[in-house]
Amino acid sequence: MDTESPATEEMVPPRRSFWQWLVGPHAAIQDLGTRRQARLLSSLLIGLLPILATGAVASGLSDSGGTGFPVLLGTLIGCVLSYALSRTRHYAPAAGLTLAVFSVVPFSILLGVALGLAPYDYDDFVNGYIWIVLPILLSGVLVSLRGLLILAGANLAALLLVPLVLPVVPWGDVLQPAGLLV
User: Fold this and answer.
1) CA 60-61-63 angle, 5° bins
2) What are the 10-residue block averages of pLDDT along the chain, 182 residues in total?
3) What is residue 179's predicted lDDT score, i.e. its pLDDT?
4) What is the DSSP letter of 181?
5) Distances from the Cα of 41 to the Cαs of 78, 94, 143, 152, in angstroms?
6) Radius of gyration of the chain from Cα atoms?
7) Which residues, other chains included, contact 62 with Cβ-Cβ below 8 Å and sequence gap of 6+?
8) Which helix (H) or strand (E) segment is 141 a member of?
9) How far apart are CA 38 and CA 95, in angstroms?
10) What was the pLDDT predicted at 1?
11) Residue 11's pLDDT is what?
């Protein structure tokens, strides 16, 4: 008598089945490494979406003005699109979109300064550039080494262009975040 029966959908605990439905990679993704990367990306985005939504709502309800609400809302929308794309067979574009969204956050804050939506504040600048580390760390597990180097180089080049494009930002303020990338 066979004591082991084949696993069926009915035997999977409901919580695990729901989680698998949320983060499980598309069936068309066959490579084991890519499947793990797709699952990791979906899991990270599922964890970040409520945090970004809460931040956007809190920033929108505050009367502080500035760039917080549009930046967080744009980041939230980008992450929702990335999650939706990651649930298809197009894992690589979803990973690229996620990394691009997180790379754009600090530059979006500076765009608000350039457009006159908020005054330049060193603390906001440095806090925004903490975000520049996130896409570099994520790219180490989501894309190839070549992709990581391209992303780090692009972020560093964009960072070094900031004082040229926006003279209100002193070179000294750029050195600390640039050191994170080097």
Assistant:
1) 90
2) 50 71 82 87 93 88 76 92 90 92 87 80 77 86 91 90 87 81 73
3) 79
4) H
5) 14, 8, 11, 19
6) 20
7) 68
8) helix 133-142
9) 8
10) 47
11) 61
Helices 133-142 & 32-61, crossing angle to 10 degrees?
160
Which of 46, 47, 11, 40 shows the shortest CA–CA distance to 25?
A: 40
What does the pLDDT read at residue 149?
Answer: 93
Give the chain's length.
182
Question: Which token pair is 14?
Answer: 């409901």
Residue 174 identity (one-letter amino acid) = V
For residues 103 and 151, the answer to whether their CB atoms sit within 8 Å is yes
Q: How far apart are CA 84 and CA 91, in angstroms?
A: 10
Q: Residue 158 corresponds to which tokens in the numbers above? A: 């964009």
71: its two tokens: 């930046």
**Spatial separation of the C-alpha atoms in residues 145 and 149, rounded to whole Å:** 6
Query: Cβ atoms within 10 A of the Cβ of 143, count?
Result: 20
What are the C-alpha distances in Å from 34 to residues 31, 79, 156? 5, 19, 27
Q: Could you give the count of Cα atoms lying within 13 Å of 82 in the half-sphere of its Cβ?
A: 28
Given the structure tokens 């939230």, which residue do they identify? 76
